[in-house]
Design goal:
46% of the residues lie in helices and 0% in strands. By secondary structure, the chain is mostly helical.
């Protein structure tokens, strides 16, 4: 009796998981910007009204640094308890 209930519970969980997976694959997010997107700015350099600002790319600062500068930054104390 217990093994029958366990099998039924596992089957229900697998079915629910399969339905969720199928639904998430079918419905794509509508307004998710891609990572490589750039904003069109007006001549003053400010984004146009209604356009969302993207956060700065944290990895870009390391691409522009020399290996010596990276080591120097890594050896500096960071935050509380540094």
């Amino acid at each position: 009796m217990k093994s029958k209930r366990l099998s039924l519970a596992i089957a229900a969980l697998l079915a629910a998981g399969g339905m969720w997976f199928a639904w998430s694959a079918w419905h794509k997010p509508e307004s998710q910007p891609s990572k490589g997107s750039t904003e069109v700015k007006n001549p003053s350099g400010n984004p146009e009204p209604g356009h969302k600002l993207l956060p700065p790319d944290q990895t870009r600062k390391f691409l522009e640094m020399t290996p010596e500068e990276r080591v120097k930054l890594a050896r500096q104390p960071h935050g509380v308890g540094g």
